[in-house]
Every structure is written in C-alpha cells, then in structure tokens.
C-alpha cells in the first residue's frame, strides 16, 4: 500500500469518481445510489456509486479469468460460488435455487438466475445478458440449455467443483445434460484470483474495519454488571447497522468466567468476574472485516492482564513480519511458538490467520490461505487476513493488510483487556 491508508482513501475516491463517469447507466433512483463514507469519524467524503466497482475493474477481472481459461483450454466457465458471481458480475443472488454466471472465453457473460432475483440483478450488475427462470423450472436444465443455445454443447466447460452451491448432485446433473461437453475441474482458480485486493477493495475493507471498532466499543459500553448479554449484543449490532454494515450475521458474543469463540448467544446476566468476548464480523458492500476483544466485568486479575499484554506483544511481532515474500509458516511460527514458549497454552492446534475479503453464506470463513506450521505459500502485497490468537480464555484478533512495511491493522481499537 504505497503511501499508507490515507493514500488508499484518496485512490478509492478517485476510483469511485471515475466509475460514476464511466457507468453503463446514469445515476438513477435512490435505491440505485449508495453513499460511501470515508474517514475515521463519520463521513468526510460522499460519492454516489451506481456499481460497487468501476467497469474497468470488472473488465480487468474478466481478463485475468480468461487468461487462466486459455491456459487450461477451457471455452466456458460456470461460475456458481456467490462470492465469485459478485466479483465478476457485481451481484450475488439468493441461494434458494441454483444460479450461475456463464463466462465464455470470448463474448459477453450471461447470468442464469431466478426470475424473482432478476430485477435486483438488473439494478446491481453491469451485465446486460440475463436468462431468468421461473420457480417451476429446473435451474440446472436452464443452465445446460443456455450453454447449448450459445453454441457450447461440445466445448470444454469449467466447473467450480469447490463451489458451496454446486453440490455433487447438481454437478452430476450438469454433466448428464451436457454429454458431448468436456468437463474441466476449475476448482481453486477464482478463490486465488481474489487474494490480492485492489485499492477500492481495500477501501471497503477499511470501512468494514472501522465498523468493527465502533461496534466493539458500543458493546463494551453496554457490558456492565446486571446487564443481560443480549443487551450487549444489541448494542454491538445496532452500532454496526448505524455505521453502514450490510449483513445480518454481524457478530459473535459470549460471556462468563471463561469464554468460547463460537458459543451461542444466551441470556446470561453479567456479573463481577465475567469475561465478555466480542467478535464483530460486519460486511460493507460484501467485504468483511473482523476483530476480537474482551472486557473483564469488574477488576481483572493480574494474571489476566499479564496474559493479555504478552499475547499482544507476540502478535505484534507476527504482524511486523507480514511483508511481501514472507513465508507463511515463518509468520505463523512467530505467534505459535511465542505463545507456547510463554507457557500460555499447552498445545496450539488451530490456525493463526486466514483470508478476508468478499464473503457470503453459508461459509463463515475463507480458508483459501491459512497460517499453519506446515503452510507452503508466500505473502503478497495487499493480501488481507484475519489474524487471531487466544490463550487462557482471552482472544485478540485484527484485520491486517500485507505491506512492504509489514502488516498494517485496518482495525484500530486499542489492543488490551478492557475493564
């Protein structure tokens, strides 16, 4: 990130301004117009954006996809993972029925989706070509028929076999309906294409991270003895909504003498000695940032304070190593060995970080890249990760972007055990 986060805001604004000028259709009704807010404290600049990204960015993404298609001798790809549909077409459908974007090596892509989604698609996407099917039709057959009608019945067809929406049953049905096509496994390709973020993607992640900070602060303001943990959750999620979050799955929370990352929200009334754990996971225009913090109800123990300080020190060292070209396993080792050598855990079986970016249900996390002792990949500039650790019931995590100066936190909340 040449020039730091201030430069990201500037480039983001320039990208957004240019996108308005190049939009396929003029800015129309209020429902088509979205205000983007930049700055660390409410909005300092507002830009009307009819599409999430400028048309040029979508074209560059398609060009990169088609380069891989050409290298694999694939004539058409069936894009069905919702993140990838959004990435290339600017729209993610509902999941009630199968939908896809068909991307040919040459020519315009075509969306195949539920008629009920077609109006929203027309408002959000830059694509003009859409085949809409009724609810009484078989979506897989409509996809196959569209492929045949476009002249690809005997072509090499790429399938996202790792798509959450292309079940085994659906994949087999596609193959049976296209008996003369050559089916090519197109797994991992689009996940990996999205690893390095563009300036505008980084800006969206920065906004999401700012929402994290605000939501966690609101949660801790509400977390007091005698308060039901649901009230803490309401405070956190309400603050996220107020600041621009666009998703329903906003956060995780747990409380008690000891806490769990993935516990379900209950009805506990907070009392002295409790630890309240929060993990806001807001989305902004589909891009998610994440952060973990804890607050002690009443005075924390000396051991808890020392544990938190040690964890932060070790994780900060890990962040400093997050530079382009760094080996992921070495970045992981700093945290993993540091926590174990400090005696904070007896074992360390989980990852220490994973990919962040576009995310839609049903996935909760993107493990395209993870930090493990056995990882065999190198970091690249402008990749973004959720880096996390925990020990003795206390977690710390951040949304971190890889830069030449090391990892920079997009989440800015003070790194300490609150009380």
Explain the layout of strands and helices:
Elements: H1 4-21, E1 34-37, E2 46-49, H2 55-71, E3 76-79, H3 82-89, E4 100-104, E5 110-114, H4 115-124, E6 130-133, H5 139-149, E7 156-159, H6 168-177, E8 182-185, H7 189-193, H8 199-222, H9 229-242, E9 251-256, E10 275-280, E11 283-284, E12 287-288, E13 293-296, H10 302-320, H11 328-341, E14 353-355, E15 366-370, E16 384-391, E17 394-401, E18 408-409
Parallel strand pairs: 3-7, 5-6, 7-8
Antiparallel strand pairs: 1-2, 3-4, 4-5, 9-10, 10-13, 11-12, 14-15, 14-16, 16-17, 17-18
Helix pairs in contact: 1-8, 5-6, 8-9, 10-11
Distance between the termini: 35 Å
What is the molecular shape? globular
Compute the average pLDDT: 89
Number of helices: 11
Q: What's the number of structural domains?
A: 3
Hey, roughly how much beta strand do the residues contain?
Answer: 15-25%
Major sheet strand order:
6-5-4-3-7-8
Structural class: alpha+beta
The number of distinct β-strands equals: 18
Radius of gyration: 23 Å
Question: Class of the largest domain, according to the CATH hierarchy?
Answer: Alpha Beta
Helical content (DSSP H or I, runs of 4+): 25-40%
CATH superfamily of the largest domain: Creatinase/methionine aminopeptidase superfamily
Write down the CATH topology of the largest domain: Creatine Amidinohydrolase
Q: Report the uncertain regions.
A: 1-49
Pattern of helices and strands: HEEHEHEEHEHEHEHHHEEEEEHHEEEEE
What profile does the largest beta sheet have?
A: 6 strands, mixed
CATH architecture of the largest domain: Alpha-Beta Complex
């Amino acid at each position: 990130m040449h020039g730091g986060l201030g430069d990201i805001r500037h480039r983001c604004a320039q990208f957004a301004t240019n996108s308005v000028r190049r939009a396929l259709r003029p800015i129309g009704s209020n429902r088509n117009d979205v205000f983007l807010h930049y700055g660390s404290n409410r909005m300092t600049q507002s830009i009307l954006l009819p599409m999430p990204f400028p048309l040029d960015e979508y074209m560059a993404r398609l060009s990169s996809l088609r380069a891989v298609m050409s290298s694999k001798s694939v004539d058409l790809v069936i894009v069905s993972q919702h993140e990838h549909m959004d990435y290339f077409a600017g729209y993610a459908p509902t999941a009630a029925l199968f939908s896809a974007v068909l991307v040919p090596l040459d020519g315009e892509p075509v969306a195949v989706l539920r008629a009920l989604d077609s109006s929203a698609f027309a408002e959000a996407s830059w694509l003009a070509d859409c085949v809409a099917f009724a609810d009484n039709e078989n979506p897989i057959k409509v996809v196959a028929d569209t492929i045949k009608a476009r002249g690809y019945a005997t072509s090499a067809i790429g399938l996202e076999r790792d798509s959450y929406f292309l079940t085994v049953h659906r994949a087999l049905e596609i193959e049976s309906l296209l008996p003369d096509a050559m089916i090519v496994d197109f797994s991992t390709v689009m996940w990996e294409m999205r690893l390095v973020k563009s300036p505008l993607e980084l800006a969206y992640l920065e906004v999401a991270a700012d929402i994290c900070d605000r939501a966690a602060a609101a949660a801790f303001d509400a977390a007091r003895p005698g308060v039901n943990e649901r009230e803490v959750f309401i405070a956190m999620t309400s603050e996220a909504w107020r600041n621009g979050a666009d998703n329903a799955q906003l956060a995780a929370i747990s409380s008690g003498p000891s806490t769990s990352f993935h516990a379900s929200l209950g009805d506990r009334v907070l009392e002295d000695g409790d630890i309240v754990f929060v993990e806001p996971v807001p989305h902004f225009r589909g891009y998610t940032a994440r952060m973990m913090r804890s607050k002690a109800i009443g005075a924390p123990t000396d051991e808890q304070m020392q544990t938190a300080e040690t964890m932060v020190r070790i994780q900060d060292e890990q962040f400093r190593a997050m530079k382009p070209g760094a080996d992921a396993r070495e970045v992981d080792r700093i945290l993993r060995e540091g926590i174990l050598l400090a005696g904070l855990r007896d074992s360390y079986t989980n990852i220490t970080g994973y990919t962040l970016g576009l995310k839609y249900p049903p996935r909760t996390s993107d493990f395209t890249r993870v930090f493990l002792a056995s990882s065999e990949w190198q970091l690249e500039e402008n990749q973004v990760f959720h880096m996390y650790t925990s020990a003795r019931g206390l977690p710390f995590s951040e949304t971190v972007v890889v830069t030449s100066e090391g990892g920079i936190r997009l989440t800015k909340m003070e790194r300490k055990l609150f009380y």
